[in-house]
Amino acid sequence: MKGCKMAMVRLVALIVLYTSLGHIPSSLGVILRTTDKIVWANEFEPIELTCLIESISTNNPRIEWKKIKNGVPSYVYFQNKISGDLENRAQLREPANILIFNTSRADTAEYRCEVAAIEDQRDFDEILISLAVRVKPVVPRCSVPESVTVGTSTELRCLENEGFPASQYRWFHNNEELPQDPKTSQRFVNFSYIINPDTGSLKFRRVRKEDAGKYYCQAKNDAGNAQCPPKTMDVCDVDVLGIFLQSCGGLMAVVTLIFVIYLMKRLCCYKSVYNGNNYNTPAQAPAVDYADADEGHFRHKSSFII
């Protein structure tokens, strides 16, 4: 009897000790675990979120799954059926795992597995799992100039916005990959360009004749890659004649403008002079009575006797 009493006392003391330390013997509560708390999946491929019940005494415990997106929870598995946006795309697998048949980018979220066991002393436990769905890049939009002049600077651009995680970019010249640092390759040591793998920019400081050729860009992440069709960039010599003709044309335009301004000023001066002088019809001289004059000239005088 004393031995049994001592054993019971030890068992109670052990239970109190475990409880005070935050540990509960597996036979007294439900305990969950998962193989991965952070899960990556490729879009359109299956993925399983594991919710393993390590210990439980209750038969037919209540199992629920919730999806938490932007802090807002919604049911995924409730009252023994799949619901929400995973309906017809997932199923519950024993003991409490969720299998998603074909993941989509919209499935990226946190998922919480909850198990309630009313017959256990610890009657509830939960596991939080983060799911991130990788999305393959789409064909990037590439911008390659058709023609550039030797010695000038130019930029080639490449961009796509669908891939997740964000794409890294690589450029190819005549089907040969351009190293990010040209000085690391004997083949491209004389090239003067800068590649930004995060933005997809390819900048040439000073274009050379050797830079001519076909260029294409590849966008890549953990889900796959995609590339744009090759585009040809021609490199032309400096057009000395064209520059000369342009200069002459510019000079002629300046001379013509000066001449027009000169003519306008002359015209304005002429109008000013014209308006400043009195051009009224001059007053007529007093009329002369030519008849009287003649008569006075030929008038017979009394002293004139025929």
From TrEMBL:
One of its GO terms (cellular component) is protein complex involved in cell adhesion. It is found in: Cell junction, Tight junction; Cell membrane. Keywords: Cell junction, Cell membrane, Disulfide bond, Immunoglobulin domain, Membrane, Signal, Tight junction, Transmembrane, Transmembrane helix. InterPro entries: Ig-like_dom (IPR007110), Ig-like_dom_sf (IPR036179), Ig-like_fold (IPR013783), Ig_sub (IPR003599), Ig_sub2 (IPR003598), JAM-C (IPR042974). Residues 25-125, 137-234 form the Ig-like domain. Residues 1-22 form the signal peptide. GO terms for biological process: cell migration. It is a single-pass type I membrane protein. The chain crosses the membrane at residues 240-264. GO terms for molecular function: cell-cell adhesion mediator activity; integrin binding; protein heterodimerization activity; protein homodimerization activity. SUPFAM superfamilies: Immunoglobulin. Belongs to the immunoglobulin superfamily. This is Ig-like domain-containing protein. It comes from Crenichthys baileyi.
